[in-house]
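Note to self: keep these together.
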Amino acid sequence: MIDRRSVLAGMTLVSLAAPAYAKGPFRPLFNGRDLDGWTPVGDANWSVEGGVLAADQGGMSFLVSRDSFRDFDLRAELWVSDDANSGIFIRCADRTRITPATAYEVNVFDRRPDPTYGTGGIVDIAPVSPMPKAGGRWNLLEVSAKGDVLSVVFNGQKTVDAVRNTAHAEGPIALQYGSGVVKFRAVEVRPA
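Structure:
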């Protein structure tokens, strides 16, 4: 016969021993109407039309979230042209100077000259192989950052599962425009 008190005590010990991350609902970072909650950095022509956030010309540019995040799940629906250079930077240490040295860059760049850190990889941190292709269709990019564990899922395929020292422990999220055509129709976050 199973003693219920022993089972409950064991469950309590297990729940205390493992870190627990709250799983609340996702909340939108992009409202589908305008750039409220985002600060442009650079000179790309970011615009919102028909619920889609887009850029198709200008130099290297970012939209930086007003809020900062430490541990979170992020999901974004994005469309890029075959020649696009885009991505999402997380835990940006400097809101005005966004680079792989000041944040983690989750890349969307099908034609990256060195494909080691192409679409689905984290630049200079976690290579991707095989590299999925993003160009010419809507894609779902999911990023999880929990302490020093970073993971990326691209269209349902896990591309990165990396443990990294927390060089960048907290900061805003930045959407990148580098070249081609880049569109986002949903950007949502769930703090952990």
